[in-house]
Amino acid sequence: MRMRSRGFTLIELLVVMAIVATLLTLVTPRYFAQVERAREVALRETLGVTRAAIDRFHGDHDRYPASLEELVDKRYLRSLPLDPVTERSDSWVLLPPPGRADGEAAGGAVWDLRSGAVVEGKAYDQW
Which Pfam families match (predicted)? Predict the structure, then answer.
């Protein structure tokens, strides 16, 4: 009686590895494109929520906030917004009210904010 060894042959393992490698080459580019797209969607949502908080602050206090920290201190935001593209909270570009470079006469310094991220030549500062 002949004993048959259990296990896979080298050829079977190579075939399975080739199939897995082929599937990974098809899926990987789509995955990274979706990750980038998800960051852009998160950035749009973060900008919308933060801009709404700035507008609510202006409606309540009749002036714009001096900084994003003031929005957190007065509980218009739970925490400083995190830029999803740069994954930092200090990369925001803060814009003063229109017509004033310093924002003092308009009663505040933060009228709008933009992302300071530049990824592969794509600037997010116009969103």
Answer: N_methyl
